[in-house]
Each structure stands twice: as structure tokens, then as C-alpha cells.
Design goal:
The protein has about 375 residues and is an alpha/beta fold. It has helices at about 45-55, 105-110, 160-165, 170-180, 195-210, 220-230, 245-255, 275-280, 305-310, 320-335, 350-360; strands at about 10-15, 20-25, 35-45, 65, 70-75, 95, 100, 120-125, 145, 150-155, 190-195, 215-220, 235-240, 260-265, 280-290, 310-315, 345-350, 365-370. Helices cover about 30% and strands about 25% of the residues. α7 runs parallel beside α8 (about 275-280). It is globular. The relative contact order is 0.16. The structure holds zinc ion (2 copies). The site of one zinc ion (ZN) has 5 residues, from loops.
Length: about 375
């Protein structure tokens, strides 16, 4: 516990967009009251990180990257720590933490009871800079300091940490979408558009929630083969490699007795998924749009289809601490049914640029860095 001020951390610092990412030696601040120093075991890499690196999102710099993480507790500030489930946390425990902290005082937080829509949230690895204490404040780092207000949750015993990281962002995102926005009902037929981490999280959770049948529409074929191998989804339709979208929509209709699905979940992120998704939903069904997290432009849709199909159209934005905790609590059930560890490719932290390129190219499903 002594010499805490002398602890340092090698961390990946984004100083300039589109420039090489430097590994820097940063000071680790002392754990103040309510704060926790964690030794990071895994820092997740997701599409957002590629956008940050490329300067497509307006963020302050320099920033230690990494908003997804899992680690062991190294120091706890005065007052001790209880995790989000109410369990006491001790040095040496394995924990995950939510990427962002909502402010609690803006109108969406205070009045609309929608912390996911907070106007002033702090997000590790995104908008907390190197000079903001405490720090380091990103998970691409040997150590990081979790500040007051962070949702910290112990990883259940028996859950493989690598499996826990497989859906580190996608899992809580889908918890928000499927538990908060439009739950899957028993016996429903669900179509998932997209076979990246968000799509696979949607399909796996829909199966756990009691869907009778889950149809994954995505690609490339290697990703669908992985999903098939893990038992994620019952039907896998390739919309990327040489299939025309019309025939895929027709196949979904054929698989659903000509009616379309009860629920279509968009996890593809491409605007042209929308008209296809609308066409794959049955009359009276629901369309839950999750994947359009970054603005990739406009697309024509026929508004008559919304009325004629009597479609419930919903969006779902990100997630909050409670959704991350629900994801972690779900991990024993999720990992008992699906071997999620297979989705993960590990890279040494120094190879973060390689990991980012693989994520950008879609050549790995889930990349994680080992500090
Ligand atoms: Zn707020
Ligand atoms: Zn992420």
C-alpha cells in the first residue's frame, strides 16, 4: 500500500488523430475516497476506437484510449468499495466497470429518467483527458483509476475473463435494447441484421430470452460460420458475399410463412439495412434499430410501410452502468450456453494499431489488448 505515488503505468495515448499511437509512462494517481486503482487484464477494442483514432468524433486530446475493460483491484480508496450488486470488493477481486458516468443533474438524467441520454457524461477512453485527475482514465493501460460514480461489478466466479470481454460493449448495448426498449417475447421469431459483436449479442440474448427462432442476416461467411458453430442463431443468411438483398428478404419471408418476423433487430450499422429490415418485419411487428451508432447518412424509406405494417419502430442509444451490470450478471447463463471465448482475439497492448486495423477491416470479431 505504500509508495502508491510512485506507481506508474504504460498507457496508449492518443495525442493526434491519424498519427501513430504512443505508449507512454504515466503516473498513477493515489486512490482517493471512493476511487479504485485496477490492474488492467484486458482492454477491449471496438469500432468506436477506430473512429476516435481517425478523428471522426470530436474529442479532447491527449486521451488514454480504452472504454471497455476488465481487471483486478489493486488499491481501494478510503471508505472501502461495494460493487453495483451490493457485494463488498476486496483487493485482488476481478471486476468490470461501465465505460461512462452520467452526470445525474442534466434534464435527461434528472427529469426524463434516461441516464443513457445524459448530456454531460464522462466516458473513459473518450472524453477524459490525460490531465484530468484521477488517472490514467482509459483501459489501454497497465493501470487505471476508476473514479467516484463508476458502476463497478465483480465478475462472477467461474466466468472466463476473456469470454466476459467478448461482448464488453455489445452485451450491455443489447441489454439496454432488449430489456429496456423492446423485450423479446416467448416464442417470437427474431431477425438480427448484422453478425458483428452487436448482432451476435442480439441473437444470443434473443435465444436466452425465449425466442422460438432467430435468423441472423449478415456476413461475411466466416462470421456466420462462427455464429453457427457457437449455436448463435438458427438460420444464417449471407447478405454480403454475392447475394442480392431482395433474395435475402424473400428468404426471410419464406422462413416465416410469408409473414415476416415478429421482431427485427438492426445491428448492421449501414443505412441501407433499414428498408430491408422494414421489409423483413411482419405486419404488427417491431423494428428495433441499434446499429446506427455513427451518422453514415440518409436512406429512402417508404413511410407508408410503417403505417401499413403497423410497425413499432424504436431506436436504442448506447447503455449505462446498470446495463453493464445486468450483462455481467447474465454472463454465467450466457457462457453456459455459448462458448463466447471463441469470439475473442488477443493482442499485446503494443500492437494496438494492428488490432484497430483488424477491427476496422472486420477480420476479427472481437479484439482485446493485453497490457
Ligand atoms: Zn446527465
Ligand atoms: Zn466499445
Amino acid at each position: 500500500m505504500s509508495n502508491a505515488h510512485h506507481k506508474t503505468s504504460r498507457s496508449v495515448v492518443l495525442r493526434e488523430f491519424n498519427k501513430p499511437l504512443a505508449l507512454e509512462e504515466l503516473d498513477v494517481t493515489e486512490a482517493g475516497p471512493g476511487e479504485v486503482v485496477v490492474k488492467v487484464e484486458y482492454g477491449g477494442v471496438c469500432g468506436t476506437d477506430a473512429h476516435l483514432w481517425n478523428g471522426r468524433l470530436n474529442i479532447p486530446t491527449p486521451v488514454v484510449l480504452g472504454h471497455e475493460g476488465l481487471g483486478t483491484v489493486e488499491r481501494i480508496g478510503s471508505g472501502g468499495l461495494t460493487d453495483a450488486n451490493g457485494d463488498p470488493v476486496a483487493v485482488g477481486d476481478t471486476v468490470m466497470w461501465a465505460s461512462s458516468i452520467s452526470c445525474g443533474s442534466c434534464v435527461p438524467c434528472r427529469l426524463h429518467e434516461e441516464p443513457t441520454l445524459c448530456e454531460r457524461r464522462s466516458t473513459y477512453g473518450v472524453n477524459l483527458t490525460v490531465s484530468d485527475a484521477p488517472g490514467p482514465s482509459g483501459s489501454w493501460s497497465e493501470r487505471m483509476v476508476l473514479r467516484v460514480g463508476t458502476s463497478v461489478v465483480k465478475v462472477p466466479a467461474g466466468v472466463d475473463p476473456s469470454a466476459a470481454m467478448s461482448l464488453a460493449c455489445a452485451g450491455p448495448t443489447m441489454v439496454h435494447a432488449l430489456y429496456g426498449r423492446r423485450p423479446v417475447r416467448l416464442g417470437e421469431t427474431v431477425v438480427v441484421q448484422g453478425s458483428g459483436p452487436v448482432g451476435l449479442a442480439a441473437a444470443a440474448m434473443a435465444q436466452l430470452a425465449g425466442a422460438a427462432r432467430v435468423i441472423v442476416v449478415g456476413g461475411p461467411e466466416a462470421r456466420l460460420a462462427t455464429a453457427r458453430g457457437l449455436g448463435i442463431g438458427d438460420h444464417h443468411l449471407d447478405i454480403i458475399d454475392g447475394r442480392d438483398p431482395e433474395s435475402v428478404v424473400a428468404e426471410v419471408r419464406a422462413l416465416t410463412g410469408g409473414y415476416g418476423a415478429d421482431l427485427v433487430i438492426e445491428c448492421a450499422g449501414a443505412p441501407n439495412a433499414l428498408p430491408q429490415g422494414i421489409a423483413m418485419a411482419r405486419r404488427g411487428g417491431s423494428y428495433l434499430v441499434v446499429g446506427q451508432y455513427t451518422d453514415r447518412g440518409e436512406i429512402d424509406i417508404n413511410p407508408h410501410q410503417l403505417v401499413h405494417r403497423q410497425l413499432s419502430l424504436l431506436g436504442s442509444w448506447g447503455f449505462t452502468g446498470a446495463h453493464l451490470v445486468a450483462y455481467v450478471n447474465l454472463l454465467p447463463a450466457l457462457t453456459a450456453r455459448f462458448d463466447l471465448k471463441c469470439l475473442v482475439t488477443e493482442f499485446p497492448m503494443a500492437d494496438c494499431e494492428t488490432a484497430l486495423r483488424h477491427v476496422g477491416a472486420g477480420t476479427v470479431l472481437k479484439a482485446v489488448l493485453r497490457p
